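Late entry, beta-D-glucopyranose complex.
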Amino acid sequence: MTSLLQNGGFISHFHEIPDIQNSDPVNIEGGSMNTEKQHIRYKTIVYIICLVAALGGLLFGLDQGFIANSLETIERHYKFGIEGGQQYSAILATGGIIGALLSGIFARFLGRKRSLVFAGFIFTAASAYSALLPSIAILSACRFALGFGVGVASFIVPLYLSETAPAKIRGSMGTLFQLMITIGIFLISLSNVFIARAFVNPTTSLPLMFLTVALFAALMFFGSFILPESPRWLMLKGRKENAIEVLRRTLNSEEEINNEIQEIEEALHGPKGAGIGIVFKGYFFKVLVIGILLQVFQQLVGINMMIYYAPTIFGYAGLTGLLAMMTVPTVNMLFTFPAIHLVERWGRKKLLYVGAASMLITMIAAGIAFQSIGTVSDPSMIGGTPKMILLISVIIYIFGFAVSWGPVVWLVCSEIFPLEGREVGMTITTMVNWTFAGLVMGHALTFMKTYGNASIFYLFATFCVLAIVFVALFVPETKGITLEELELNLKNGVKLRDLGNVNNAASPTESEA
Ligand code: BGC
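Prediction complete; structure with ligand written out below:
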């Protein structure tokens, strides 16, 4: 069973992915179940557990994807301009940072179940209150709270799953959570388009948009009440009898229950997580820098400019309608599926190269398209060629991200930290992710306005180049090596780039500075 310590950071659903490399392909390939596995029975409660987990991921996506197709409606009602719109979008990230920081405390003291109920409540209350169209200050506070909920849920849901769902389906649940984020982005984009078209008046459409999020949030809130508490947390609190009761509900035989209890007991007596002081240990600091820079680049290639502002940017080039509103979320969702296979087949680094190269070329192409548009102020006067180049560039760009930097960065961050510092490492790198996401969300449009529409594309292209160089020089290939071997390599002083070489595990090489 995945240890508590292995689940320590925001969006740690990706923590489940490493298990895939060492576990049965049933979790990823779907079709390769052997006969024995096909006969595994899951109890109703297991389905409920999976459903609530799926809702956690979906809510993340609903909040992240909310802005793109609602910004115009929000603007018509609140009239807060480009600056205000960006600030409103970006405050989600601030909430996410704080939620991620505090979620470990909630998980430990409130328990997993009560933390989930709490996150569900925050989601429901903040989205329902936003539907009342309060003042800008309160509306922004609600978005901050939504971010906070995302931060908490993204930590607790995977942690809860890894402790409660039967081992056989843990891997696929991790994948499900990740996919649900992109599905959430897609669904809210779609429903916001339809609501905006059906109800022109923002005082009707905007509440409906918020209520759509509230509906799923309420499902998660009420769903969380019927969940059992995590057996591992109960054991942590010395409540073995209660833990056994829960395991009776999720597992099929006394033998399975005894094995699970034994495993939990062993894990609880095993090494405890290190405190923040571990960042001062040389070997940890080195991988921490790798994780931080991967997250920085994941955001500075510009993904959230597209997720948040694609309709606005397409609008600058005279592209409007469904194409402008639905291209990004659709491509993003569709290409997350192949990533799950490719990450094990091609490896992490190859995917990162392919992704960064696709994004580099398409960012330059999009920049050129905008440059050719120049200062044409009437979008209807813009020719078909730049529009076409822009559209194709964005499609390939999103493909490049969804198939690589989107999932792979989270995956590598969940793999590179030694067990005792995984919680600290994941939390710090996750907070870095949100900090830079907020930076992009909060400044992308102003940057375009100040330096010209093409400028930001060239800026992101530059980060793609730096990202490629960084991956080539420092990032290890973590495919096909166990987390224990990685850790051994790291502590033996193997070069960062070579950490994933299995044969290095036993033979230390020259230490890096
Ligand atoms: C990123 C998010 C982004 C999402 C898009 C994630 O991997 O961390 O910032 O919005 O992908 O699918």
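The two ends are 36 Å apart (CA to CA). Will revisit in the morning.
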